[in-house]
Design brief:
homodimer; alpha/beta; Rossmann fold; 3 domains; six-stranded mixed sheet; elongated; DNA-binding; transcription regulation (chains A, B); Lambda_DNA-bd_dom_sf (chains A, B); DNA-binding (chains A, B)
Chain lengths: 358, 358
DNA sequence: CTGAAAGCGCTTACAG
DNA sequence: CTGAAAGCGCTTACAG
């Protein structure tokens, strides 16, 4: 392989001069700089990453710890991963992907061995076993997902509580009086998937505050189970006029369920989901939704992480906890409930539509 | 950080002895070995990856180059990625994920800098710009996807031609006489997505050989476009009794389309797709399909890659080109065509069902 | 069975 | 503006 020694020899300078000429870290005569640059280009020189890491204690690699659980909807995870990976690259970092089941062990391995300059944790649980290790690690960490104890790391997540309130308020403004909420599977909650109950609790409280009847249920993450459950819920609560979905699989299953029942949204049922626009487009989901913003969250996490890595001042700044406010993307699946519409003939279908992306 | 010097000092031996004791690469007295092991454990020693890579010229990292195109169905990619990543870890390797749009540039970067010991390319095109670079790289490479020129690398892919023939033959045995094939978008073909026409050509030829009428079309990778196209195809070819799908988005859209038309598979239409079982379960697709085996292909690619990396003999073995034979997973969506069934009353619905996974 | 030393390819004070 | 040298933390011939 071609080393900096080869460049130095070809340019007729010392290795240190070659190094400085390439890095620009001290002033070099234009002549020499040109000779070094030419030599590097001609010989196709790329610094050896291991050697550079050893000398500088910087790898320019970030770790990305993803966790895949059998009872979660895997495709949603990909968008977070791409948000992280693409942003990292934009900032000059590569991404070490870790999908190992034992995330704590993996985290220790990549941090102890100094394979990475920082770590992004995905799918963070309430009491995440990886967190104590991350706090103890010399590298900074950023989370996508809000844990019980967010200290010592930068945390980014959708504001699920605000999302729940926004869903209820939107339905309330349209005069809905009875709603169904389908959350992720209960297993997710038991494993510490706090976002499930953060949204659910907010929905429950806001519904109570608004005098709205609410039926909250956990839904499976697989088809056809989730479709069957949706049917059962609609059977059980015929007076419900609005459906809130904090469950990607349920959203994907709903078109068939509605079709089978001869229902249309928003004519017969108003629907709001919680998923990404990319997800909606991929599966053609015609339902308004609170944008889960996976790419944005991944990007925010990496930007903050890299700032902490590179900026010596940022290193000791207080950690941030940023909850992205919910944005309701209007796809026209909400309107006045059937009864209200018959009762008040002049009522427009969505007088308070929040707009969102077109 | 704790280095091997710290271990050596704590154990009262030289650094080389500590290193040998840890690696077991030469015989060490039981006493010393124990003292070193204790010291390493107590101090929480993990070798510095950069230093080790510099000394051994091995990183124990494989590069994973994924490519995401706007007109392809992204969720399918995740399973290949997990197949690679999980297998790599099982073999003691970490995975550097590259999602950069300019795959060739990225490949050069990670190979030239010696960040990886080998590379897996996903989504390989007929005339893939990354291939010349990979052949010129000092590290071995493995592909998932068959390029026009497979020399210099190990290649793994589904046997799409055999898959096409199997689809047609299955329909032929059931006495279907007119079929529709929906492929991936034409853009994928233009970009060099050879698997599209490998399957399509085989279907066309086999249909001709069997005297079966065939209507081949490219389908969009997005909803609702693909659903609309499916409707148009079924409208245009009312006599077609079988539908072959080499397009994940089309498969995901089909249940709604069938429902909207009041059709049931296999009663009114026999259907065979080409996607993974994981995909089928996630979206509850009730259609028999040729398994695309993403996890298996990712695993095979990594196993061969690691063998070439670690086994000095394997290094110079001839490169392999392995096409995984298609396996038809029977989900009960094929049967005799409606006309044949009325014609021959005693005909069982699927006399030659290939079984496959239950 | 063990140790002193060289070397992997960089970067960066130190010295001029 | 430039060079000789030290050092990052490992591994591994070389020598005993």
């Amino acid at each position: 392989m071609v080393t900096i020694g080869d460049i130095a020899r070809a340019a007729g300078v010392s290795r240190s001069t070659a190094s400085y000429a390439l890095s620009g870290k001290r002033s070099i005569s234009a002549q020499v700089r040109q000779r070094v640059a030419d030599a590097a280009r001609e010989l196709g020189y790329t610094p050896n990453a291991g050697a550079r890491a050893l000398a500088t204690a910087e790898t320019r690699v970030v770790g990305l710890l993803a966790q895949f659980h059998a009872d979660e909807f895997a495709p949603a995870m990909l968008q977070y991963m791409l948000g992280v990976s693409d942003t990292a690259r934009e900032l000059g970092y590569d991404t070490l992907l870790v999908t190992e089941a034992d995330g704590a062990r993996a985290l220790r391995r990549i941090t102890d061995s100094r394979m990475v300059d920082g770590v992004v944790l995905l799918n963070v649980a309430q009491d995440d076993a990886r967190l104590p290790l991350l706090r103890a690690a010399p590298q900074p960490g950023a989370l996508v997902g809000l844990p019980g104890d967010p200290s010592g790391v930068d945390v980014f997540d959708l504001d699920f509580a605000a999302a729940g309130r926004a869903m209820v308020d939107h339905m309330h403004r349209l005069r809905h009086r009875e709603l169904i909420l389908v959350s992720q599977p209960e297993h997710v909650v038991e494993r510490g998937g706090a976002y499930v109950w953060r949204l659910q609790d907010a929905v429950v409280q806001q519904a109570a505050a608004r005098g709205i009847g609410l039926h909250a249920a956990f839904g499976p993450s697989r088809q056809p189970d989730v479709g069957r459950d949706l049917h059962a819920l609609l059977d059980a609560h015929p007076a419900a006029t609005g459906l809130l979905l904090n469950n990607e699989a349920a959203a994907a299953a709903l078109p068939s369920v509605l079709h089978a029942r001869g229902l249309r949204a928003p004519r017969d049922l108003s629907v709001i989901g919680r998923y990404s626009d990319e997800f909606a487009r991929t599966f053609s989901l015609p339902f308004s939704s609170v944008e889960s913003a996976p790419d944005l969250l991944g990007e925010m996490a990496v930007r903050h992480l890299v700032r902490r890595i590179t900026d010596p001042l940022a290193r000791d700044e207080p950690h941030v906890l940023r909850l992205v406010p919910p944005e309701l993307v209007d796809r026209g699946s909400t309107g006045a409930p059937p009864t209200a519409r018959t009762a008040g003939p002049g009522t427009p279908p969505d007088p308070h539509g929040q707009g969102g992306r077109p």
